[in-house]
Design a protein that fits this description.
Elements lengths: L2 H24 L9 H8 L5 H14 L5 H9 L6 H11 L5 H8 L4 H34 L13 H17 L10 H29 L3 H8 L5 H5 L4 H20 L1 H9 L6 H17 L2 H12 L8 H8 L3 H46 L2 H30 L5 H12 L3 H9 L5 H29 L3 H5 L20 H23 L4 H11 L4 H7 L5 E2 L2 H12 L1 H14 L11 H15 L1 H11 L1 E2 L4 H76 L6 H33 L7 E4 H18 L3 E4 L6 E4 L1 H18 L6 E8 L3 E8 L33 H11 L4 E3 L7 E8 L2
Parallel strand pairs: 4-6
Antiparallel strand pairs: 1-2, 3-5, 6-7, 7-9, 8-9
Helix pairs in contact: 1-9, 2-9, 2-14, 3-15, 4-12, 6-7, 7-8, 7-17, 7-18, 7-19, 7-21, 8-17, 8-18, 9-17, 10-15, 12-13, 12-23, 13-17, 15-16, 16-17, 17-18, 17-29, 18-26, 19-23, 21-23, 24-25, 26-27, 26-28, 28-29, 30-31, 31-34, 32-33, 33-34
Length: 896
């Protein structure tokens, strides 16, 4: 294919990526950008050119040895719910912008530690980026049938221009905001798109080779199985290979957490923790699909070409050999997608680390303090842009210097081994609060030095000296210091060997110095917050140990220089509102110090934020005894607050009950007053009638007609009876209340008792022309006090008559036999009972105010007496709710 045609295709493809990234930034709130599938696909930035091309080279030469690099992430994925979720929460709370910030924050915002982590990440990632450039260069040469690299003239090297284009792309979309903790939705959208493309194109070429050029997987296996040395391609070589596999799986397990690009997409670009639930199974599935055809493509390449030269690029060479240029172009674009996503995300992460942990804290901080917010923002962006260019150009020169000596596989493993040196301080620090910054620094430096000695130095010396004496004889001829067989261990592959020794000394140094040297109060404070993730949000707000003098105005001035007046003022207002502090507060406390450092962390990194805030506050050193005392007081306060909260809740409940009881007493008192008024009125009425009639009879002579005398005497008799009933009710209720009423329990026919009650009240019903119906005419023997149950039935029937309309009223009396109870009911078609009165109708003194415009006659004791009598019989009484017309009263009597 013509060079210019291929370059045009690359430019058009990059234009599509630009457009997708632009749409992603523009529609950053859209569900098409914020969903678990885009998040999971962005994690597939792990599958770089190493996966796309390098795995096939390993499979062609070593068989299934390519698998450990993918088994580690598959094993790690289920742990994301525990480990990665914890990391995400901490990072969001503190506006973390890189893995260097994360580790340095864990150890008290240690500036030097952040710088060390950044340097390690640079050394580990620049070779990895060069790997991507090497893949682009070599695949470009294969597809265009031309040598990509001219050793004498850089400007004639197409790879240089590809590197330049990648730098421009990463610069444009990676430095839009000064706050590096902000989400990069556009880049993530383009990475997700590329993840789909590279997987689809890889599956297409795999399917083409396996099922079109060959007759399926069985056909390839049958043909390769008869070739020489086939067993080495399909089996493990005993215990030694087992150790190599174990170390490679451990290495890739760590890499999926620690690679700057993986930390960027998995932690910093995570919008919602719940996306992890989808990622823990979808990402391993993605890796499975990506590796499904690897072994068959590798075997097919060996069968096609008869050798393993350029085995890494079988996916391109096979379709080109068959004349399928279009298919080869798709494969090239898939590989190019792998390169772009890896380079862009890596340079984005590294530029932030270089800016926040090297350049700003070690050179530009004083200059920033003197500048205005707009100029500071511009400086920060420019630093990151220049960093991106320097990183990519450095990777390009690494590619130029070592491309011939190293394969994609070996370059990738160099990066993994170097990055893994962060593992002890990262993972152990998450769960062990004793780890100190000194231990972390020493451990990383020791591990990094051993990794350089055992892995990087050998091929570097060989490239520049042209001999392998260092590899063969060791340092100064000491065989115990041979880089690939340190202290006599010579059965491991160079990467596994380097990983084993570097990690061993790294971890031992970390543990030993953590036990020997205790961190300062700040380290131990942050250690407590990182380890106790369940209470992280509470601890990071209220348990920060700090002692000194600080003023809000000074802190605000620092914030304004980096955030601007508007953002700084708004942030402080939010802080004062959250903690219910007055807006004119002058002295700052530990919470404001912590809050301010977090605000600055996204822009300039945690180490620089600590330095800036420390520059305007007078912090005093706190002894260990004071720290323990403060923490103890904090714990005591928490316990005390918990007890006080419980007591407060109890008091609130008691206060509420007391209030209700008081309201009830007031209500009862009011009812009692009304009752006494009613009783007085009721007593006064018949007495007045009796007195008036008596006086008339006494004053008149014997000439009064007999008929009139008889009427007066009848009135006197009726009023006397009424007075007697009222007095009896009061006496009955008093006996029932005090428990002095004794029941005469005997066996009676319930039917006869009902009839007696109807007869006793029938005259009143006849007067109002109200029907009384006895529905159940059967006889049934029950033990009860007949006089009292008669009183109950009479009260219920008379109540029903009282509230029924004359002429149309109807009262039904019924009884049913249940489980050891007889249930009697009195129902009517009167005005019914208001919903709000249901809970009070059986209370003493209560009379419904809503039944009639005129207050109903009676003392308000009838239903209260009725309830007491029924309960004396061990029965229950209630009024049915939800009755559409009238009222239904039901009571039960037990029987055996």
């Amino acid at each position: 294919m013509n060079n210019y045609t291929l370059i045009t295709i690359i430019i058009l493809y990059l234009a599509v990526l630009f457009y997708i990234a632009f749409l992603g930034e523009k529609k950053h709130q859209s569900k098409w950008v914020n969903n678990p599938y885009v998040y999971t696909l962005s994690l597939a930035v792990y599958c770089s050119a190493w996966t796309y091309y390098g795995s096939i080279g390993i499979a062609a030469n070593s068989g299934i040895d390519f698998l450990p690099i993918y088994l580690g992430p598959v094993i790690a994925a289920p742990l994301w719910i525990l480990v990665l979720r914890k990391i995400i929460r901490i990072s969001k709370q503190h506006k973390i912008s890189s893995i260097a910030d994360f580790i340095s924050l864990r150890y008290g915002n240690n500036r030097f530690l952040g710088a060390i982590v950044t340097i390690v990440c640079l050394f580990g990632t620049i070779p990895y980026i060069s790997l991507q450039l090497k893949a682009v260069s070599e695949t470009f040469g294969i597809l265009s049938d031309n040598t990509s690299y001219n050793s004498t003239i850089i400007l004639n090297d197409s790879t240089f221009y590809v590197a330049l284009i990648l730098a421009i792309f990463a610069t444009f979309f990676g430095t839009q905001n000064t706050d590096a903790s902000e989400k990069h939705k556009g880049i993530i959208a383009s990475v997700a798109f590329e993840s789909v493309l590279k997987l689809v194109f890889f599956l297409v070429i795999g399917g083409y080779i396996t099922f079109f050029l060959f007759n399926g997987t069985t056909d390839i296996y049958d043909k390769i199985s008869v070739t020489e040395n086939f067993e080495q391609l399909a089996t493990l070589g005993g215990v030694e290979d087992g150790f190599n596999w174990f170390f490679m799986i451990a290495l890739s397990f760590m890499a999926i957490f620690l690679l700057p690009r993986q930390f960027q997409v998995s932690v910093l670009e995570n919008n919602r923790e719940k996306h992890l639930k989808k990622a823990i199974w979808l990402f391993p599935l993605y890796l499975l699909l990506f590796n499904f055809f690897v072994i068959f493509i590798a075997w097919a390449g060996r069968l096609t070409f008869g050798n393993t030269e350029n085995a890494e690029y079988y996916t391109l060479l096979i379709p080109l050999a068959e004349g399928h240029t279009f298919l080869a172009t798709l494969v090239f674009l898939g590989g190019f997608s792998s390169v772009i996503s890896m380079v862009i995300v890596s340079t984005l992460a590294l530029s932030t680390m270089v800016s926040n942990n090297l350049i700003i804290p070690y050179g530009f901080l004083d200059k920033f303090i003197k500048n205005q917010p707009e100029r500071n923002s511009k400086y920060i962006k420019n630093i990151r842009r220049i960093s991106i260019f320097i990183i990519i150009i450095s990777a390009y020169f690494f590619y130029v210097s070592f491309s011939k000596e190293l394969s994609l596989y070996s370059i990738g493993l160099i990066s993994f081994v170097i990055i893994s040196q962060l593992a002890p301080s990262f993972f152990i620090g998450l769960y062990w609060n004793r780890g100190s910054s000194k231990a972390a620094i020493i451990g990383i430096i020791v591990g990094f030095g051993i990794a350089i000695y055992t892995l990087v130095l050998p091929f570097t010396l060989q490239a520049y000296t042209g001999t392998d004496d260092f590899i063969q004889y060791g340092l100064a001829g000491n065989e115990a210091l041979k880089p690939y067989a340190l202290f006599g261990i010579d059965f491991l592959s160079p990467p596994a060997h380097a990983f084993f020794w570097s990690m061993t000394f790294n971890m031992l140094s970390y543990l030993m110095f953590s036990l020997l040297s205790k961190g300062n109060y700040r380290e131990r404070n942050y250690a407590e917050m990182f380890v106790d993730s369940k209470n992280f949000s509470t601890l990071q707000d209220s348990a920060l140990v700090w002692k000194g003098e600080a003023y809000v105005a000074d802190i605000k001035n620092v914030l304004i220089r980096f955030l601007g007046d508007k953002r700084a003022t708004r942030a402080l207002n939010i802080f004062f509102t959250k903690y219910k502090l007055p807006k004119d507060t002058q002295l700052a406390d530990a919470r404001l110090i912590n809050f301010s450092e977090k605000l600055l962390t996204g822009s300039i990194g945690s180490a620089s934020a600590k330095i800036l805030i420390a520059g305007v506050v007078k912090e005093e050193e706190i002894s260990l005894i004071e720290v323990l005392k403060i923490l103890e007081e904090s714990k005591e306060n928490i316990v005390s607050n918990k007890v006080l909260l419980e007591k407060s809740n109890e008091l609130s409940q008691l206060s509420s009950k007391l209030k209700n009881a008081n309201e009830e007493l007031v209500s009862k008192d009011k009812q009692k007053d009304e009752f006494l008024d009613t009783v007085a009125h009721e007593l006064k009425t018949p007495i007045t009638g009796i007195r008036a009639a008596t006086e008339l009879l006494m004053d008149e002579d014997d000439d009064m007609p007999k008929k009139i005398k008889t009427q007066f005497l009848k009135n006197i008799l009726q009023d006397s009876e009424r007075l007697g009933r009222l007095i009896n009710n009061i006496l009955d209720f008093e006996k029932l209340e005090t428990g002095r009423l004794h029941l005469d329990i005997r066996s009676h026919d319930i039917q006869k008792t009902i009839n007696r009650a109807i007869r006793s009240i029938s005259q009143i019903a006849v007067k109002k022309k109200i029907k009384i119906i006895n529905k159940n005419v059967h006889s049934f023997q029950v033990k009860f006090d007949e006089d009292r149950i008669l009183q109950v039935l009479t009260n219920l029937i008379s109540n029903a008559i009282k509230f029924c309309e004359p002429k149309s009223g109807e009262i039904i009396i019924d009884f049913k036999i249940g489980n050891n109870t007889v249930e009697l009911s009195v129902s009517d078609n009167g005005k019914g009972i208001p919903e709000e009165d249901h809970n009070y109708i059986f209370d003493k003194f209560f009379q419904s105010q809503n039944q009639n415009t005129i207050k109903p006659q009676g003392s308000g004791l009838g239903l209260a007496i009725t309830k007491q009598i029924v309960e004396k019989h061990k029965g229950k009484i209630w009024a049915k709710k939800g009755v559409k017309k009238g009222a239904i009263f039901v009571f039960t009597l037990p029987f055996k």
